[in-house]
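Need Nudix hydrolase domain-containing protein's 3D structure for a figure. Predict it.
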Amino acid sequence: MNKIRSFGIKENKYTYIERKGVYGLEYKDDKVFLVKSPLGYFALGGGIEPGESEEECLRREVIEEVGKFIEIGEFLEEVIEYVHVKGSEKSYKKIMKFYRIDLKENYDGKIEEDHELVELSVEDAINKMFLKGQAYVVKKYAK
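Structure prediction for Nudix hydrolase domain-containing protein:
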């Protein structure tokens, strides 16, 4: 069994809220698709809601963020990242699972207006990504 890689520093002064999430990566040539939000650059996906499966979460999050349907492929890896939200009392232990995805047709409904689908070189993506655990997975599985 592979060891789960961990990122960030777990500081004893914080209480961490465990947050499970599912993320999808699509690569095209030497580029990767990410979502750009007011907080930075991230893998497509997000937190699992109560009663939701990983697949349901990933499909919902990609539709909400960038308005695309997806096909979910192989499981890639699970990583953990400890994150403290600056200027806040909140800290998270983010348990993130990653899958390959294929972006499909557009969704016609309402999506998050401050999120944008971007295509970046893998090198540019890993330098811009907010979460180092996500950047690690983007780099590791690039073609």
